[in-house]
Amino acid sequence: MRRGGALRGAQLAYETWGRLNHARDNAVLLFTGLSPSAHAAASAGDPRDGWWQRMIGPGLALDTDRHFVVCVNSLGSCFGSTGPASIDPHSAQPYRLSFPDLSIEDIARAGHELVRALGVLRLDTVMGPSLGGMVVLAYAALFPGGARRLASISGTAAASPFAIALRSIQREAITSDPAWRNGEYSPEQPPAAGMRLARKLGTVTYRSAAEWTQRFDRQPIRADLRGRTPFGSEFAVQGYLEAQAGRWISTFDANCYLYLSQAMDRFELAAHGDPQAVLRRADLAQALVVGVESDLLFPIGEQQALASTFEASGTATRFAPLPCIEGHDAFLVDTERFGRVIGEFLCG
Amino acid sequence: MRRGGALRGAQLAYETWGRLNHARDNAVLLFTGLSPSAHAAASAGDPRDGWWQRMIGPGLALDTDRHFVVCVNSLGSCFGSTGPASIDPHSAQPYRLSFPDLSIEDIARAGHELVRALGVLRLDTVMGPSLGGMVVLAYAALFPGGARRLASISGTAAASPFAIALRSIQREAITSDPAWRNGEYSPEQPPAAGMRLARKLGTVTYRSAAEWTQRFDRQPIRADLRGRTPFGSEFAVQGYLEAQAGRWISTFDANCYLYLSQAMDRFELAAHGDPQAVLRRADLAQALVVGVESDLLFPIGEQQALASTFEASGTATRFAPLPCIEGHDAFLVDTERFGRVIGEFLCG
User: Which residues have C-beta within 8 Å of that of residue B328, sequence separation ≥ 6?
Assistant: First the structure.
């Protein structure tokens, strides 16, 4: 692991769509945001819709008639890849906080090992949104020549202090919940109150004020969802936050969240050297940098700056600032706009 | 109280600067934001700097050579005015959650009673920032002719769902802290963990991403402040949040905060009727609406809309969107820009 320690017998969960061609040069490796699994789209083995269902398939932006698409669950997450909630083979107990320090670079390296194991020596494209938009930059820094193209989607070369503040408050909501027990909670008794707060705040940062005014304005909450305790929910937007939080608490592990969230704060492309030199060394034929103007957490200015660094490194770069109002999460919602930009890039 | 219940023997804490003239027509009533006391500036009785020290005094924006300035601690707060932390004379115990439902209109009415008791029949100006920017609108709605002029500073006619979401998460941080004990905590054992989270999040919403990039960027935290527990603070911005939160926890009461915060979510000028008609009935000679472009919590668009409503009501209105980068708190920080606009208005 980049910051010390090692994982032995680690596993990676992944899914694939399309087929690796004979030349083995049509693979697209897709990293995810903080929360999703590798299930980006339906497949024969799992017919449920995935988190990027309208983006991956025959004739879609990630065209599985042309590309072999691989999505990997981040190292450190809890959907099949090894993370703090996994059993440490050494102790036969969950790793919990004995999991080694996690960095964005470790997630990139895990994805690299995966595609090598699948027989891919050079990716057609390495791609990722949000946290994944950091991972692709780590990938470029660590594996020069490892991909022909790179697509950073609502990502950044380094988190701003504003994003760090918001994420650190989310982590503190969990670590200050007595049920967290310094990471030693049982899966049946997670730090639910802290996780609820963390996810509600996360949801605020993933969306935008304009979208919520349009969707909820000041509508009252549905009568059956109205809080019955003092200071309980009164507005529709509070019911939405509650629903989002409830869904997440029932699927995500608190310690995994803490590790992944902290890794995002710490990531800095410049840790690998002068960013322009790092990206030149990465030897990419093309780069795509996409973001949205209403993004609070990964603001468009950071993507603009990243695109400029790519340009300056001599990489043929397309910068696509999108006018979506859904904030950071737009890549999950406005698949029409994102699909057009990403589809054009992959066809090029 | 507007939403039911009554307070008996309630008290109001206030401070004054300058002198009421013979005609009793030079009084400026200043409401505060959520957290401050009535100590807006130093005075003979309390020489410490106040929260608007550079704004109130001889020759300053609120010119005490001309005006009799009165600042009142909001009803429901904890700096001398009656609120949930005060002793209920009926039970001889703190009110806690037996305090009646609090609304912005109750705070306005309390201020009105205060100035009447001081012998003022009509204010020269009613003024307030943030929460106080809501209170002045309630004042105008409740007391037609009660003020000749009105200044709304980084206020709004109704909170957006985005602001409601952010405030409701802050309240939940407190109410889900087991130490809150449904409001029955002792003053020595407040729900400190929840209050810390609430204030840190509050601080994020009071500032702006641009300011923090300028001030903190990705600087590491001072070594002596570095968190020693897992996932502890690593960046300078986290040290800043911690300091802000620590200061607030030692002075503010959690229940008072919950009441005031909820009152802000609930306030809506339109509850008094068509806003244009309400403001026409208020019979103001002039209105000033000031806000800043980087405000996340009371966005400039809401102030623009409020200014338009004033205009449409037939009130001579000045709308001043300021290019400060300090976000919502700019009125506390950029007193040069705010002082100029407010001073010009009061001289007019």
Answer: B130, B154, B205, B206, B207, B292, B295, B296, B297, B298
- The residue annotated as part of the active site, out of A39, A67, A112, A328, is A328
Which residue shows structure tokens 């920017």?
B133
Q: What pTM was computed for the model?
A: 0.98
Cβ-Cβ contacts under 8 Å between A and B: the total is 144
Considering the domain B14-159+269-347 in this protein, what is its CATH number? Answer: 3.40.50.1820
Q: What is the pLDDT of residues A216-237, one digit of tens each?
A: 999 999 999 998 899 999 999 9
- In the three-class reduction of DSSP (H, G, I as helix; E, B as strand; rest coil), residue B261 is classed as helix
A residues 170-199 closer than 8 Å to B (CB): 171-173, 175-178, 182-183, 193-194, 196-197
Which pLDDT value is given to residue A227? 81
Q: Which candidate from B159, B169, B183 shows the least CB-CB separation from A201?
A: B169
Whether the domain at B14-159+269-347 and the domain at B163-259 fall into the same CATH topology: no
Pick from B166, B182, B203: which is nearest to A204 by CB? B166
Average pLDDT, chain B: 97
Residue B175 has pLDDT above 90, yes or no: yes
Q: Name the β-bridge partners of B286.
A: B149, B316
Measure the CA–CA gap between B243 and B221, rounded to whole angstroms.
12
What is the per-residue pLDDT for A183?
98
B300 interface with A at CB cutoff 8 Å: no
CA B266 from centroid of its chain's CA atoms: 15
Chain B environment of A193 (Cβ under 8 Å):
176
Q: How confident is the model over A18-33, as pLDDT tens digits?
A: 999 999 999 999 999 9
Taking an 8 Å cut-off on Cβ atoms, the answer to whether B162 and A258 are in contact is no
Backbone region of residue A207 per phi and psi (left: phi > 0; alpha: psi in -120 to 50; beta: other values): beta
A161 with B236: Cβ contact below 8 A: yes
Q: Catalytic: B154?
A: no
CATH class in words for A14-162+265-347: alpha beta
Residue B340, number of CB atoms within 10 A of its CB: 13
Q: How far apart are CA A131 and CA A111, in angstroms?
A: 14
Class of domain B163-259: mainly alpha
Domain boundaries, chain B: 14-159+269-347, 163-259
Q: Hey, is the C-beta of B204 within 8 angstroms of any chain A C-beta?
A: yes
Give me the residues of B, 244-273, that contact A with CB < 8 A.
Answer: 258, 262, 265-266, 268
